[in-house]
Design goal:
The structure is a homodimer.
Chain A (H helix, E strand, L loop, with lengths): L9 E4 L6 H10 L4 E6 L2 H13 L6 E5 L5 H4 L6 E7 L14 H14 E11 L6 H13 L6 E8 L8 E7 L1
Parallel strand pairs in A: 1-2, 1-4, 2-3, 4-5
Antiparallel strand pairs in A: 5-7, 6-7
Organism (chains A, B): Lactiplantibacillus paraplantarum
InterPro entries (chains A, B): MnmM_MeTrfase (IPR010719), SAM-dependent_MTases_sf (IPR029063)
GO molecular function (chains A, B): methyltransferase activity
């Protein structure tokens, strides 16, 4: 993220969760940039609001308590986006039954792709170990694998010698 | 490499090729460090010697014109190694019939593992697109996947949406 996001950029935290990435992104974009953060869970919005207040970064962030599949309704079509981050799966410390899903995740990814500037980056941390995770991980991987290489460069980072199922990272960069 | 290699370190270029990595490593280890470089091909040793002379870095590098499977005979068992780099496949601009092979590659990797310091790193750039490449790529991947996660962390980086077969990178880090 810090290689791509500069002060003044408009970025998206598609799953604010406990707000760690939101705070980090808000610092990177600075007072002249903006972060739109989405999360369907009240607990996530509350935790992130608190984390942003504590860091005095609330003024450069808009939080939306709704699923990221509604992103296209909230972010103007002509709003250039520099970076978007997805932490898939469930909210750490929250209800493990409430998970991101393939269709809504990919709806949000596509909406961001339409707004992504050249060299803009979508980062997905993909968990496959929880119930429902493997299905989503496969859907996201299939989608990313089939992106036109002339339009997007897709890099996968994964730990390959772990007994348990570690998350992997997908980086989709617009050419 | 630059996150791991510091001045004074002892490192290995297991396939010096045209000398790009050798020069880069020699700069990183500085006058107090050392690089051992291996390549079976005279043309590679010649090109690397020339590149090192040009950069005035020859004094911190020893070049060995032999396959990297002989590494254990040339590097003392008690010599701590901080980093080793393999560019598998054939020499760019050279004879495409002369390629690295699974057995000799893994012999060298194992010899380095025995000398690797904590947080030390083996980096392999693995090409699968040339004749013989897929077999080697599979052997290296199988080997790395089965390394004990308590001893080594193995990270794979790969482009996943390319029509042609791109190289992938394996990073084996000692815990």
């Amino acid at each position: 993220m810090n290689q791509v996001v500069n002060p003044g950029d408009h970025v998206i935290d598609a799953t604010v969760g406990n707000g760690h990435d939101t705070v980090y992104l808000a610092k990177l974009v600075g007072t002249t940039g903006h972060v739109d953060g989405f999360d369907i869970q009240p607990a996530a919005i509350k935790a992130t609001t608190s984390a942003l207040d504590k860091a005095a970064l609330s003024h450069q962030v808009t939080l939306w308590q709704m699923g990221h599949e509604h992103l296209a309704d909230k972010i103007a079509t002509d709003q250039p986006i520099k970076c978007a981050v997805f932490n898939l799966g469930y909210l750490p410390g929250g209800d493990k039954q409430i998970i991101t899903k393939p269709t809504t995740t990919l709806t949000a990814v596509k909406a961001i792709q339409e707004r992504l500037v050249t060299n803009g980056l979508i980062i997905l941390l993909v968990y496959a170990g929880h119930p429902g995770g493997a299905t989503e991980a496969q859907a996201v991987l299939d989608y990313a694998t089939n992106l036109d290489q002339h339009q997007f460069q897709v890099l996968q980072y994964q730990f390959i010698n772990q007994v348990h199922v570690p998350p992997y990272l997908l980086a989709i960069q617009k050419r």
